[in-house]
Design a protein that fits this description.
alpha/beta, Rossmann fold, 3 domains, 5-stranded mixed sheet, 4-stranded parallel sheet, 10 helices, 20% strand, flat, binds iron/sulfur cluster
Amino acid sequence: MLSSDNINTIEKSIIKHNAKVIALQVPEGLKTKVQAIAGQIEKLTVDVLIFADPCFGACDIPSMQMKNIGCDMIVHIGHSEMIKKHSLPIVYIEYFSDTDITEILEKEINQLKNYKNIALATSIQHIKQLPKVSDLLKTHQKMVHIGKPKIAKHLGQVLGCDQSAVISIQDKADCILYCGTGRFHALGIAKKTDLPVFLLSLEDKKIHTLKKEQFTLQKKNIIRKAKYDNAKVICIVATTKPGQMNKNVVEIKKKIEKKGKRAFIVVMDVIKPESLLGMDYDIILNTACPRIEEDVVFKKPIINATDI
Ligand code: SF4
């Protein structure tokens, strides 16, 4: 449910933009609460349309669709701002967890005994706890490094597609500690660095090393690259999602063809294997969300455009 601060933020924006019809978008994990949240917003004397397609992140704002159906503003819950320009005004309501990370860290600190310089990262849900985590590490004589991200909003915040908050400071660190739920973000970091990566998991309340997973991910990348080098026909996939859209697809195609390969461009909203049925190619070159290659099983190999 939304707090009174959240409601105030939404109300101010409704007044500012003279909004009458609001599009409401929540992550899958909040779908059970979406009707109650819509009810809270409707008390501000507006109508609410719930956008029910899966929401993959702050990259995935249906501004054009919701404008076309008559909305004046979007309330997007669960992620911080990622893209500045949209065809509708957007209110981002960040969603924070109050699970105490420091209790777990205190219990598991021994896992970090061989490391002095620690680069810290987390997701938006736990970002407010980073100063407390940092203070606790310092009381254990650790040096703590928290970097500025390129796409994400807060110091130390990582997204599935933006690990720059830790990668930018990895030279100063001996290891990276990611605190959060699930392995998705920690694995995203592990793929991008040779430093040891640790996951402080809020699920089992332990600190885990990701050494094995890191080795496997990096090996998979080498294999993908070799498959790309041997491929003759490249299927370049692009999305219409605003924050995942790559407007250089034509340039990418030209560059590939200059190197003697054939390439064609396929555009869709959600990138899914069924949309590619019937097409003939050797490998998919993904220009959309860079984590699709791990999350979706395609019939042919897939590689990110950033990795070729
Ligand atoms: S990882 Fe993918 S889904 Fe998540 S914010 Fe980045 S582009 Fe969007």
